[in-house]
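Fill-in record for Transposase.
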Amino acid sequence: MTVTAASMQDRDGAHRLPALLRERFSTISLVWADGGYAGRLVA
């Protein structure tokens, strides 16, 4: 679980998510998100 300030947009907080998921679940290769997560999270 990740807790962020109420002033932070979800899409801005999501930049940490891929690394956290990879630490816990090494087999994850694809993460889907809705249209609110505009832009690229992974290079």
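KEY FINDING: The chain is about 30% helix and 0% strand.
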